[in-house]
Amino acid sequence: MLWYIDPGTGSMLFTVLLGVIGAAVYSIKAFRLKLKTKLSGGKAKANADRIPFVIFSDNRRYWTVFEPICREMGKRGKEIVYLTGSEDDPALTCGLENVKAEYIGPGNKMFARLNSLNASVVLSTTPGLDVYQWKRSPQVGLYVHIPHAASEVVLYRMFGLDYYDAVLLSGKYQEEDIRALEKLRGLPEKELVNVGIPYMDEMAKRLVRAGDAPAHPRTVLLAPSWGKSAIFGRYGGRIIEILQKTGYHVIVRPHPQSFTSEKEMIDRLMADYPESDGLEWNRDPDNFEVLRRSDILVSDFSGVIFEFCLVYDKPVIYTDPDFDLSPYDAWWLDKPLWTASALPRLGRRLDDTNVGSLKDMIDECIADPAFAEGRRQVKEETWAHPFEGASLTADYLIGRLEGLTEKEEDK
Questions:
Q1: How do residues 26-52 score in pLDDT, each as one tens digit?
Q2: Diameter of the chain by CA atoms?
Q3: How far apart are CA 338 and CA 346, in angstroms?
Q4: In the chain, which residues have pLDDT < 50?
Q5: CB-CB contact of 251 with 219 (8 Å)
Q6: Which terminal residue of the chain has fewer beta carbons within 10 Å of its beta carbon, N or C?
Q7: Domains of the chain: which residue ranges?
Q8: What is 213-382's CATH number?
Q9: 49-197+387-410, superfamily in CATH?
Q10: Nearest 10 degrees: Cα torsion 51, 101, 137, 49
């Protein structure tokens, strides 16, 4: 007789198994430590092996979020243990003396390590702590979340931040949304600290050093996200064809995931619209130069919108995201998304009725001073403490470690 286990039950059983393994590992460690304490006449401390600061990143692309924080912590003589789920994470070869980077992935091996972690402070940009396979370790003092975009924190999958102890924010609207969710779900209040956006600070500093882009023809950057609701999913190659007819230089930069999940479509588009004097395809790992030399961005719900508008101070043409909010935390809130109020101030909305007038929309967005004022307003709402993000983050992490240490000593 064959036994069938549905995916939901299988996931639950696996979570239970991980919990048992984590508990066993913790018990063994506790027994060894107790034995060591007894043999040493009581001099060994229970937290002797505890790591002060851990950063966990599930993907290599989040190194840009953590690098400025790691550098700032290094200036203050603080060591970081950096655990990553990507074997090609730049952290592994970053050369920072205070960063001890380790590849712990993938999958179940990664979660088993995280679930038995012994650390004082854990900083991560990964949502879903204590919801799916990543469980809180009883040996961790504080879990801190830092977002990887300058927008809503309620666009994570449901319960994404519920079980973090603290969240580092960049705008008051984010704090209001989290507090509303806590009230609805009867959760204890988390520590919410407004530190700004360290990775965007670094982009802005780099732009100041680089200066204006060299003289170039008017350039349009098409940088969509991926999936059925993204620009290529809605308009296909037609959007490239319309942009070519504007006479402007066009750069097409697909989302990196498109080359994996939508490879057939991308291959077809690249064959139908090959590179020429007026059209280029861009896959640079670093998007700094392509953003610097573009005059306007055409995108959808990609996070690059806020980087382009707020760091480079340029307008955008965007499509409304057409997706179901029910799996996300935002579904619980009886209010429109902050992004819905921000985007019209940053540029023009693209839809089926005006896609044929794209050239006029581009010219209007670049020339109209109202969009420049809109960028200033949005920046003020979602990018607190410009150029201070890494410093304020380090202040918080170090201060909280000192507080945890004092509490341990009191015990």
A1: 455 545 545 554 555 443 455 678 999
A2: 81
A3: 13
A4: 1-9, 11-12, 15-16, 22-23, 26, 30, 33, 37, 41-44
A5: yes
A6: N
A7: 49-197+387-410, 213-382
A8: 3.40.50.2000
A9: P-loop containing nucleotide triphosphate hydrolases (3.40.50.300)
A10: -30
Q: Which residue, chain included where needed, has tokens 């290094």?
A: 74
Which amino acid is residue 196, in one-letter code? G
The amino acid at residue 162 is: D
Amino acid occupying residue 19: G
